[in-house]
């Protein structure tokens, strides 16, 4: 079986005899084709990702061909589309190209021509081996900026140079520090993490360098510090920007001389550990403001790696969301998958908590979601609220010269979508906001392909 025989084709037109003609032409070539007379029903299935190629005519009573394409694209669906028209004008060809149709045919449709073009487009869009996300230790990514970072890590990991990792909270700094250790020649030696913000300033010195018995009240026994435990391995100082000025000076001394002393002790000890540090603060600004020693900053920042926030890594959002869903789905439960429109909605959210926030969100969905597909309306209210786009104003519809029926349909859909978004995906609440009867609201939303599969 060839690829094009497995790919599904949908033909949309409201003339049953034309539907039959096109479908039987394609089936005679062993292509998997079917037709639908109602564009609104067709759109709902198309944006659920049920077809690999859509063929539509330009003039259909319920909804015109251009509007069908606008709605499909508006829902974030990139399925290839062929347009057939009996009224081909330069203007409609230009509009078709603007909307990104893959091909444009005028009636009467030459059968061999249609089949040839369908086969060409299906071949161009044949599912390829999915691009495997890149990975580095436990970090995965499908984003080109992150691939470049993974490459940089592979280059610098074997050296002994100090590394400073910068980036917003939750974007993977800790994971990256561990990956540097794992890729280094020190991988068999200890890996020690210290979160400088989590330990009270008064205890941090003894945590880092240890103390002798009786060094201070409560120091009843000698304690080995983290630098000593790290031996010839790696010590990762997270949240380095939180270090007090006094400890900054002590750390600077260790980095300059390699020597440190336990609190209350007199003997010099030598550190052979490699230092990796991280912060979500803008350390240069801290230096300028006099809160961070510039000499320490330059000693920490021999090699710096800046992790971009998740919202600037659109290629990562879908891959990571699905990765976490698969990871957290309870045993025996098939992990649900996101529809393309749901992934698009996730991409438009700004993810202030970065990957950690996405991970928590996916864990909840993996456990609570009950159907095989995750639709836009299944997403939480705060994610949808950030996506709410203003509906097209009536004056814009008039200037686009949409026929009244199309303009009304478009308004209806935008209005319902906005109500559903404002209600955080809750249909009953959406109906209440719209001042509509729940049944009527649900029926209209269904007609526009806006309902979730679980409803
Ligand atoms: N690329 C990735 N692939 C898989 N999991 C990731 C990735 N990036 C981050 N994570 C996961 O996201 C969570 C947050 O990552 P991490 O703790 O490394 O962030 P951070 O930048 O160090 O955060 P903070 O600044 O708050 O310390 C962790 O559970 C981590 O495992």
Automatic annotation (TrEMBL):
PROSITE patterns, alphabetized: RESPONSE_REGULATORY, SIGMA54_INTERACT_3, SIGMA54_INTERACT_4
Keywords, comma-separated and alphabetical: ATP-binding, Nucleotide-binding, Transcription, Transcription regulation
Swiss-Prot/TrEMBL GO biological process terms: phosphorelay signal transduction system; regulation of DNA-templated transcription
SUPFAM superfamilies: CheY-like, Homeodomain-like, P-loop containing nucleoside triphosphate hydrolases
Coiled-coil intervals: none
Source taxon at top rank: Bacteria
Domain named Response regulatory: residues: 8-122
Xref: SMART domains: AAA, REC
Recorded GO MF terms: ATP binding; sequence-specific DNA binding
InterPro entries named in the record: AAA+_ATPase (IPR003593), AAA_lid_NorR (IPR058031), CheY-like_superfamily (IPR011006), Homeodomain-like_sf (IPR009057), HTH_Fis (IPR002197), P-loop_NTPase (IPR027417), Sig_transdc_resp-reg_receiver (IPR001789), Sigma_54_int (IPR002078)
Domain annotation Sigma-54 factor interaction: ranges: 139-367
PANTHER family: TRANSCRIPTIONAL REGULATORY PROTEIN
Name of the featured protein: Sigma-54-dependent Fis family transcriptional regulator
């Amino acid at each position: 079986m060839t690829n094009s025989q497995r790919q599904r084709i949908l033909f949309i037109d409201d003339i049953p005899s034309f539907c039959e003609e096109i479908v039987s032409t394609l089936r005679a070539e062993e292509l998997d084709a079917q037709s639908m007379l109602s564009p609104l029903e067709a759109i709902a299935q198309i944006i659920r990702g049920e077809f690999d190629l859509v063929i539509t005519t330009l003039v259909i009573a319920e909804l015109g061909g251009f509007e069908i394409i606008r709605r499909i694209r508006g829902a974030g669906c990139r399925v290839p589309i062929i347009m057939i028209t009996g009224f081909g004008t330069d203007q409609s060809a230009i509009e078709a190209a603007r909307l990104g149709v893959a091909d444009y045919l005028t009636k009467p449709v030459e059968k061999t021509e249609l089949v040839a073009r369908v086969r060409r487009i299906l071949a161009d869009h044949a599912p390829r081996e999915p691009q495997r996300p890149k990975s580095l230790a436990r970090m995965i990514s499908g984003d080109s900026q992150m691939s470049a970072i993974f490459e940089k890590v592979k280059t610098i990991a074997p050296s002994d140079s100090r590394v400073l990792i910068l980036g917003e909270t939750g974007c993977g700094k800790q994971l990256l520090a561990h990956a540097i250790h794992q890729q280094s020649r020190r991988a068999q030696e200890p890996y020690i993490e210290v979160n400088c913000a989590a330990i009270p300033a008064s205890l941090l010195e003894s945590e880092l360098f240890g103390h002798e018995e009786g060094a201070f009240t409560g120091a009843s026994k000698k304690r080995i510090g983290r630098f000593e435990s790290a031996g010839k391995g790696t010590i990762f100082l997270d949240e380095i920007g939180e270090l007090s000025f006094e400890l900054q000076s002590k750390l600077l001394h260790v980095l300059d001389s390699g020597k440190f002393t336990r609190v209350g002790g007199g003997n010099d000890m030598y550190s052979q550990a490699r230092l990796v540090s991280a912060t979500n603060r803008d350390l240069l600004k801290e230096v300028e403001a006099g809160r961070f020693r510039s000499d320490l900053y330059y000693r920490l920042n021999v090699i710096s790696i800046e992790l971009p926030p998740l919202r600037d890594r659109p290629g990562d959002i879908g891959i990571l969301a699905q990765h976490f869903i698969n990871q957290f789905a309870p045993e025996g439960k098939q992990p649900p998958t996101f529809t393309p429109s749901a992934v698009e909605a996730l991409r438009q959210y700004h993810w202030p908590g970065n990957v950690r926030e996405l991970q928590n969100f996916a864990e909840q969905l993996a456990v609570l979601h009950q159907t095989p597909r995750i639709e836009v309306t299944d997403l939480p209210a705060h994610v949808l609220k950030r996506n709410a786009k203003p509906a097209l104003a009536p004056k814009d519809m008039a200037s686009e010269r949409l026929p009244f029926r199309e303009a009304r349909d478009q308004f209806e859909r935008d209005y319902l979508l906005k109500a559903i978004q404002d209600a955080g995906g809750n249909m009953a609440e959406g109906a209440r906001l719209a001042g509509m009867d729940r049944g009527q609201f649900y029926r209209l939303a269904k007609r526009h392909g806006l309902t979730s599969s679980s409803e």
